[in-house]
Amino acid sequence: MNNLQQYDDLASLWWKDSSPFKDLLYLNAPRFRFFESWLSAWQDKKVLDLGCGGGFVSEELARRGAQVVGVDPAQSLVDVARQHAQESSLHIDYRVGTGEAIPAPDASFDAVVCVDVLEHVADLDRVLSEVHRVLKPGGLFLYDTINKTFFSFLWMILVLEWIAGRIPRGTHDWRKFIKPQLMSAKLKHFGFTDVEQKGIVLSGVRFAAWGLIPRFGISARQKRGLYVGVARKS
Predict the structure, then answer these.
(1) Which of 50, 57, 200, 198 is CA-nearest to residue 129?
(2) What tens digit of pLDDT does each residue of 202-225 get?
(3) For residues 108, 38, 96 and 157, what is the CA-based torsion angle, rounded to 10 degrees?
(4) Order of strands across the sheet with 226-233?
């Protein structure tokens, strides 16, 4: 279904232990391990968090010393992100906008981070073109998305949405998932080089008062489901 309205409807729960989006926060650790194999020092880098939601990645970037701009189409989520950043004494420039029309000038950013977003956008080509536009020459596009496989349908939709309820039902549309080979080809078409992709895999779980907390790792071979990637603006 790719129901984006739920992000507005559930915005107030974003940072709560009961949040249906909490698993996204647990993905920060493997994402940043991969990202930092390419960009080890965030200090004073100007970074766009595209599709920032309530601020999970934006706040992680700000704590690492980056100058962060967070962009999301949902006003309610931007409001939640601003409030939480203020409570956390973090300075983050949050803006309402879409990936198809990023509210920033050309060559504005050293890096663009875009996670949990590309499999939802209306026009992937336009988003990649816009990312290329706002990056400085040599800047990095750091992203993750979901492979279009039978496994990803079973795991992301049937298990996580319909059986386990770890993700709100209707979050994903399997038809919008993106094969790594297609993603690589599109990035090269829009002027990116040095494309690298690796899988994000479940490596274990632990128990907490509010339920199971998953642990994730990086796999060079296994990209059947979620995968993380990087590309450089030439």
Answers:
(1) 50
(2) 887 776 655 677 889 999 889 999
(3) 150
(4) 93-96, 67-72, 46-50, 109-114, 135-146, 226-233, 192-208, 211-219
DSSP-derived pairing of the beta strands 211-219 and 109-114: unpaired
Residue 62: band (very low, low, confident or very high) from pLDDT cuts 50, 70, 90: very high
Beta bridge mates, 197:
229
DSSP structure class, residue 105: -
230 vs 76: CA distance, rounded Å: 29
In the CATH hierarchy, which fold is given to the domain comprising 5-143+178-197+227-233?
A: Rossmann fold (3.40.50)
The residue extents of the domains of the chain are 5-143+178-197+227-233
For residue 198, CA distances in Å to 32, 35, 127, 142, 210 come to 13, 11, 21, 12, 30
Q: What is the pTM of this model?
A: 0.93
